[in-house]
Amino acid sequence: MSDDIKIVGLLCNWCCYGGADTAGTARMQYPPNIRIIRVMCSGRINPSMIFKAFEDGADGVFVGGCHIGDCHYDAGNYKWSRRTKIVQDIIEEFGIEKERFRFEWISASEGEKFQKTMNEFQKTLSKLGPLELK
Amino acid sequence: MSYILAKSKDNAILEAGECGGAVTSIFKYLLDAGIVDGVLALHPEEDIYDGVPTFVTDSEDLISTAGSYHCAPTMVGDIITKYFSDKKIAVAVKPCDIRSIEELIKRHKIQRENIYTIGLNCGGTVSPMTGRKMIELFYDINPDDVVSEEIDKGQFIVELADGSEKGVKIHDLEKQGYGRRDNCQRCDVKIPRKANIACGNWGAEDGWTFIEINDEKGQELIDGAKSAGVLETKNPSKQSVEARSKVENIMIKMSKKVQESKFDDAEDMDAWKRCIGCYACRDICPICWCHENCELNKSYFKDELNIPPEPISFQGVRLSHMSFSCVDCGQCDDVCPMDIPISLIFDKLQKKYYNRTGYIAGVSDDIKPPLYSPDKIEL
Amino acid sequence: MFEIKHTLCPSCSVGCGINVILDNEEIVGTFPYKRHPVNEGKNCLNGRLSAENVTDRHPFDLKALNDAVNKLKSGSNEKTTVIFSGNNSNEDLEAIKSLCESNGFNILAYADNLKGFDSVASYEDIENASNIFVIGNILYENPLVGRRIVRAKNNGAKIYVNDNLENTPTSNIADEFTSVSVKEFIENNNIDEESVIIFNKVDSFEDLNLIESTNSNLLPVYSKSNTKGALNLVEAMSKEDAIELLNNTEILLIFNDDTVNEIDFDFKSISQIVVFSPSENDTTEIADIVIPVKSWLEYDGSFTNCEGLTQKFSSLCESDYMSITDIIEKINEGLE
């Protein structure tokens, strides 16, 4: 059942978390599958957090940060952007489709982009079905 | 960077050492001149298959370390970090040794000014018990009768006490599952150019050691050893230099082929399901130095009841911490009680990382692996 | 001085080699012993920690030894029992055995409800077998025998595993996995003389007879480094017999063993317990007299592993303590 798809979302406090908030206050509908965890910066997210989410039952993991150039801490999102490559490389090796991991730059005003991204991600994950770790 | 041929002036060293005995002589010079507190090298404990790291402080004892030990796949990076961080030492290094030392210098675990590194060109190493078995099977020789071994012209050659030699093509041995360790078959760094000097017999005239001087410290070493009268040198011929680079290139080409054919095996590997979660791979890894504070020991990852551990939250975490710095030394394969080919996936990811960033672990000059860099760059 | 020296792993009966790192004659860690034919440099966690786990002991006290001798003198020999543990070297076990025989003490050799067999399968037999029957989580508990099973599987062997736990490394490599009693496992499978049965625990002594009746190659994997050596000298006891003997015991001598954690018995009911131990554990905790002795890193000796291979080990460092053999000599002098 696509309704059962579990998404863990790690959202940066200054941008994407605000974007989700904007989507919420404007009553934009998006799939309720995401469980949001607010972090202070995408730069503080380690690949291991993504892996832990997958291990503990997430079917997809989403990370949202500030647009490049807009990081509240100057370069945090650059660091995260480099880590994303490592995450993609690693999950593939363990049989987790790389589409199950997604990241976007979403600013606090982009409620619509947050809505659109969630819709797309939920659709992708429903197609893939629940994650079964080997 | 320059090339020379060198030869020991000490007859005993010349006799015991490999091709010219330059390495042992340079160690002798460093010890006698009081430049280092000691020399970290291998010596055969029981026999030639049992090379064990030893710390020599008296140059008289150096003779026991002379010669090559292809059946002693050791690693010195972590030993230096743990036991020699406060000493001035000289150390003999294979390419993977010096690469791990470089990575540890970047992590402030080894002080560059405290170590002299004498590189040994390396075509690969053989696990001791594999070596013994293959000598029995393919050479029809009792492995205990072998007095020395070497790798030359694509062959693994053993020498008996009567001076007779027998060689078998490494390629043939490896087709049957013997020969060099898996990681060595993939390794494409054959000359340790980050060491102060890199020594070997490739391209050398008989009885001489071919030395590539890699940096100023290396030049000082050679000059010092010469003026101390332990070493004689001459310039290599053009053919010598070309022959050496030909050997190197052939070996690298062979390794790349192996990489291509093996890397796909890393996905869908079902060996993880027999993992007993003993952490031997982590604990032996020269790059994984922060064991006390390891994320895998944190309560949110440590799960002693869940054995085998979920690969993504065990090897996955380790891969994310250090695979970009993997020097492909193969120690993790060697110590895994369950024979899981762990190094394959780490090496594969370091090569993927290289393709994205151009960073070769322990070879590239960057101060830090790009993942840690504060620079504003995306990949 | 930095040194690396060879020794044997004392953690179980597999008989792995291990290198010990000494820095200024102090043991600081272990190092893979890749030349060792049993394990090729591979050790489990217990093995890698074995040298570091040798804890500080109380200083040796001659008075404690004299007290122990006096207790033995005043006690009844028929009510004196000696634990015959596979943690001791063959040489120490000989000394313990002769102490018991010359004084008429009871010998208690308990080996996890297993016993000794005259002929056992070798590790090479495992790798060459085509059908392997495994009882227990061998891959996890005795990894370096487990590795031989993995290699056998890679050689094309069929692996049958019986264990009460699912999704273990051992069950994961099984071609057929069951969670039944040992009796059912043996009876339900067609086990021929070419097969190898590897086990490290059974429900009862009757199971052992049943396993033996298959006439196949057997490999009992004991939990202590020299249990095989101990059982070459004396017969193993079943749990029931062990408890009965303990019920009739007034003085209990324990040589290098953590007996209280192995036999479910009210040890407080025994009036005198004398423990000779290289380390502190729950057994020294309840003892009336504790006499510290050398650990295996401090004396020369030999262990016989579960496939019957006897391997020597040497003293690696100086020690202020006495070995069990020396202690027994002192006891004999005192008893004369």
Tell me the number of strands of chain B. 11
Series of secondary-structure elements of chain B, N-terminal to C-terminal? EHHEEHEHEHEEEHHEEHEHHHHH
Q: What distance separates the N and C termini of chain A?
A: 20 Å
Most residues in contact, chain pair and counts: B-C, 35 and 37 residues
- What would the average pLDDT of chain B be, to the nearest integer? 93
- CA radius of gyration of chain A is 14 Å
Q: Taking strands numbered 1, 2, ... along the chain, how are they ordered across the largest sheet of chain B?
A: 3-2-4-5-9-10-1-11
Strand content of chain B: 15-25%
Proportion of helical residues of chain B: 25-40%
- The low-pLDDT segments of chain A are none
User: What is the percent of helical residues of chain A?
Assistant: 40-55%
Largest sheet of chain A: 4 strands, parallel
Which outline of chain A best applies? globular
Largest sheet, strands/sense/barrel of chain B: 8 strands, mixed
Seen as an oligomer or otherwise, the chain set is heterotrimer
Structural class of chain B: alpha/beta
Tally of extended strands of chain A?
4
Write structural notes for this entry:
The complex is a heterotrimer of chains A (134), B (379) and C (336). Helices cover 41% and strands 17% of the residues of chain A. Chain A has 134 residues and is of the alpha/beta class. Chain B is of the alpha/beta class and 379 residues long. Chain B folds into 2 domains: 204 residues, Aspartate Aminotransferase, domain 2; 106 residues, no CATH class. Chain B has 13 helices and 11 strands. In chain B, the strands form 2 sheets. Chain B has an 8-stranded mixed beta sheet with strand order 3-2-4-5-9-10-1-11. Chain B is globular, with a radius of gyration of 21 Å. The model of chain B has no long low-confidence stretch (mean pLDDT 93). Chain C has 3 domains: 52 residues, Single Sheet (N-terminal domain of TfIIb), CATH 2.20.25.90; 159 residues, Rossmann fold; 99 residues, Rossmann fold. Chain C is built from 13 helices and 15 strands. In chain C, helix 2 crosses helix 13 and helix 3 packs parallel to helix 13. Chain C starts with a strand and ends with a helix. Chains in contact: A-B, B-C. The interface between B and C is large, with 35 and 37 residues.
